[in-house]
Please model this.
Amino acid sequence: MHRWIAAGALLLTLGIGTGTATAADAPQGGASAASVRELLAATHVTAMMQQAMQQMVQQLDVMVKQRLPCLSPSAVSSALTAPQATQQLIDLIMPIYQHNFTEQDVQGLLAFYRTPLGQKLLKVQPVIMRESMLAGEQWGRQRVEQRIGQLKSEGKLTAQGSCPVAPAASASAGH
Model:
């Protein structure tokens, strides 16, 4: 059940939905829909969304196969692979960009991403993100292992890393 909640939260975080943005949705002084669409295209957001959705589909298919064997995995994940899914997601995030960036901001970003440095950033950013995630995972693993070691030395965990069985706790649990 927790995996379903996590998958749902991930989908909400990425903004999978059916909203439609228009220029009227932008706050006063916000960027135009046309310039935001141009920025999304220049920064390859559509391709990144499609890659993220493919990864989610793979994870979702495994969860469906395990939890709902009466369904084919694609019965659920097809919601993410439908032809209109990416466009719906773009339509949903448009107002977010419009709310957070002025037209001048978007034009400045477009100018930057058209420079050689902007193009380099677009090229190396996925590598940086992947390597950063791996470094973060390693750091987290090391921190958890250190903490488990501390808990073992404090006697809160056994040498095998499990909870010690307290005779009083197990006797009262049976009542």
Helices lie at 2-14, 33-42, 45-67, 74-81, 85-100, 103-113, 116-153, 167-173. The chain has two domains: 1-114, 119-159. Residues 46 and 86 are 7 Å apart (CA to CA).
